[in-house]
Write a structure and sequence with these properties.
Strand content: 15-25%
Number of domains: 1
Radius of gyration: 17 Å
Helix content: 25-40%
Largest sheet: 6 strands, mixed
CATH topology: Maf protein
Distance between the termini: 12 Å
CATH architecture: Alpha-Beta Complex
Shape: globular
Structural class: alpha/beta
Order of helices and strands: EHEHEHEEEHH
Number of helices: 5
């Protein structure tokens, strides 16, 4: 069974990815098993460029096939912000709670605006030599709440209500989130690719 390194140190993301990709015929490895591997830089201006750069970096650093994703929240009233800078929105060492608080504060300055938003995720896979194998994208449309709700998930999940639902990602059970989220939609395409490789 071939090994696939998941290029993230976010434990919530590892659980989400392994749950969605279960049964593809690959053994998953975590960056936690490679403490000496540096953190890949995310200096690009698009999700795809960041995901590809991270996948290539971790593949070359470990000698394994590597999967990496880049995702972000785009809020219409903020001109698409925080977007590709979602993880660094409130500064390099800010917590998820800090980022959520800043987003709500920014939206509070805009009167009567619609709170439409969307999550975007791009997943890339590179082979051990760093060559790019596959790129998938997923999008989930929704709205931003006025306060955090729920304890599941991570990041902006407590603020995002996907269209067609009345609960945030952080309130929805994983079984639903892992079908409709931006990352789930990108990973479903990735899953098909991984199955085709091992078929």
């Amino acid at each position: 069974m071939p090994s696939l390194l998941l290029g993230t140190r976010n434990p919530g993301k590892v659980i989400e990815i392994t749950s969605i990709l279960a049964g593809v015929g690959w053994a998953f490895r975590s960056l936690q098993q490679f403490a000496d591997v540096a953190v890949a830089t995310e200096n690009a201006t698009t999700y795809a460029e960041n995901a590809i750069e991270k996948a290539r970096f971790y593949a070359l650093s470990t000698g394994l096939y590597a999967l990496a994703d880049d995702s972000g929240l785009e809020v219409e009233a903020l001109g698409g912000a925080p977007g590709v800078y979602s993880a660094r929105y409130a500064g390099e060492n800010a917590s998820d709670a800090d980022r959520r608080a800043l987003l709500l504060a920014e939206l509070a300055k805009i009167e009567g605006s619609a709170r439409c938003a969307r999550f975007v995720s791009v997943v890339a896979i590179a082979q051990p030599g760093g060559e790019l194998l596959n790129v998938s994208e997923g999008i989930c449309e929704g709205t931003i709440t006025f306060a955090p709700h729920g304890t599941n998930g991570f990041g902006y999940d407590p603020l995002f209500v996907p269209n067609g639902y009345d609960k945030t990602f952080a309130e929805l059970p994983d079984t639903i989130k892992n079908q409709i989220s931006h990352r789930a939609r990108a990973l479903m395409q990735t899953k098909e690719f991984l199955k085709s490789v091992t078929a």
